[in-house]
Amino acid sequence: MAPEVFRQAVAALTSARPRAEIELTEVGPPKRLAPWAHALAAEANGPAGELATARLVLLYDPEGQEAWAGVLRLVVYLRAELDPELATDPLLPAVGWSWLTDALEDSGAAWTALGGTVTLTSSARFGDIAGPARSHDLELRGSWTATDAELAPHAAAFHELMASAAGLPPEGVSMLGGWSGTAHRD
């Protein structure tokens, strides 16, 4: 049986409900990173289909690990498809990272030892591979240590990260139909 601290952490992490556009499912966690692990997969969808996918992994090591500075570590991997115009913005990696840091700060999560990377990729498809001829993606990998077992704010931060990466409007706000994001000038 899993330790009580880990069971409480999983319960807190999974009790937070995401907004309607985000679907969560439990998936198999990695086996060798910590004695106890739990993982969630997330998918954010919009009117045109999938906008972003992610995984959130909770690691628990009762002995702690030096690099963690604690016993509960959260790891996120996120991928979001980008519009070609955004993909060339030199500030995009910093903006992508701010999605995570802002979400953690805004949620009230207690954390330390935050680190990670933001990678931009551009792919061209050839031959029989289905999909658009070109695609541009942002990948964010991050991890941080929860300084207490109350993980509901961390779950809220994960949901907010997904919404930001997917470009979803704030909850309760509807996008005007037909708006393309470009201004018309006469």
From TrEMBL:
Protein name listed in UniProt: DUF3000 domain-containing protein
InterPro entries: DUF3000 (IPR021555)
Database matches in Pfam families: DUF3000
Superkingdom of the organism of origin: Bacteria
